């Protein structure tokens, strides 16, 4: 059975990432439950467009990681790519926090930890084979489009009081990250 699923944005994971990013840690937080991608992103001291910087950094994670991969086998020291490509992970969220005039912390949480995968990030298969394993009429671009069990209330993205204070990522940046993850899967 080959099942590749869309990744969905999880507002609870975003809030967990936000809490950790605001601590401006020197190293990635640890989790027994979730996959984590963490990086210190250098920025200009003034005039930084955080949305553009974060988008470029996530694309860099994928591009550099994909260049190291020759197939679905997990490669050592390719952790950013591993988290993004791991087929068992069906939801994720990212956030960032400026920690100085020249650096911010970028932190993504994934529902499953790709770095604990035994050997393979995914199973190869033809589009028709993948779609045959999806629930009826849920296959889109060779990914099964079935929402995971909700941890938080189901809505389009993270709406409500928490986002009015701009403590979380903008909807535009959430959509960009989500589209990148699903496009590259």
TrEMBL record:
<dbReference type="InterPro" id="IPR014044">
    <property type="entry name" value="CAP_dom"/>
</dbReference>
<dbReference type="InterPro" id="IPR035940">
    <property type="entry name" value="CAP_sf"/>
</dbReference>
<feature type="domain" description="SCP">
    <location>
        <begin position="8"/>
        <end position="109"/>
    </location>
</feature>
<dbReference type="Pfam" id="PF00188">
    <property type="entry name" value="CAP"/>
</dbReference>
<protein>
    <recommendedName>
        <fullName>SCP domain-containing protein</fullName>
    </recommendedName>
</protein>
